[in-house]
Amino acid sequence: MSYLNYFLLILFGVLPSVIWLLFYLKRDVHPEPKGMILKIFFYGMLVTIPAIFIEVFILKLTKNLSFLPAFWLSLLNVFLTVALVEELLKFFVVRQKVFNNPALDEPIDAMIYMIVAGLGFAAGENILILFPSKASFFGEIFGISVFRFLGATFLHALASAIVGFFIGLSFFRKTERKKLILTGLFLAVLLHGFYNLLLMSPNLISFPFGIKIKLETGWKISLVALLLGGAATYVSFCFKKLKGFIKLPESN
Fold first, then answer.
1. Which of 3, 76, 186, 239 has the most CB atoms lying inside 10 A of its own CB?
2. Got the DSSP string for 234-252?
3. Is residue 249 assigned to a domain?
4. How many domains does the chain have?
């Protein structure tokens, strides 16, 4: 593989995240320090590495749960092994690097930094997906990048934004902080899990009690679009709600 191909793989892996990042940074009336944005984005990319090892380890463990019906085992892997692990790691980046930083001085900043971490994670994920594909043609790389831009990259931004919204609220309801953050993580995991479930499920889905539903590709795409559209609408509402608060209390 030539240096040009490596450059294209990295460029088109990061580009979807950068486009969404520029879009969401405009939602912040008081821009965050560029150094902090780059730092959180980088750490978001970095945690894709432990995510792989953790997910592979848990998948190996769940193979021992052969007594579980295939349907329930699939749900376990989609929602807990993948969605929960990734949402927790993105939250961990912001929790460790932003919570006690002076840059976090407005409730809306919590959403911004969570989105940055999420988009960094998506960029790392995109690169890891593109490299093994051995995509050698510009069109193929571009096609995968566009698909990821409209799908997984957008999903990571939305799921992280939801967590960020509840983090922002928690600074004003300190006695409920843990409950609010857990609520945000729960909703993010649900969104992430349902997205993966729709994309990964076969056309013929088998449910317990012998129930089977045929889901054509067109319906899958429509349901994914509806899921992401609904989440985007909710995130837009979250931004408007947090914009009503200006400064965070001085002590966290």
1. 239
2. HHHHHHHHHTT-----S--
3. no
4. 1
Domain membership flag for residue 252 = no
What pTM did the predictor assign?
0.88
d(CA 62, CA 77): 8
- Give dist(CA 41, CA 202) in Å, integer: 34
Exposure class string for 177-186: b at 16+ Cβ within 10 A, else e:
beebbebbbe
- Asked if residue 38 is part of any domain, the answer here is yes
Between the CA of residue 166 and those of 24, 50, 102, 188, 239, what are the distances in Å? 17, 25, 19, 11, 11
* Tens-digit pLDDT string for the chain (252 aa): 566 777 778 888 899 999 999 999 988 878 899 999 999 999 999 999 999 999 999 988 888 877 777 777 888 889 999 999 999 999 999 999 999 898 888 889 999 999 999 999 999 999 998 876 555 556 677 777 888 888 999 999 999 999 999 999 988 888 899 999 999 999 999 999 999 988 876 554 444 444 444 556 667 788 899 999 999 999 999 999 988 765 555 444
CA–CA gap between residue 208 and residue 74 (Å, rounded): 12
| Pairwise CA distance, residues 16 & 167, whole Å | 25
In a domain, 248, yes or no: no
By residue range, what is the domain housing residue 121?
3-242
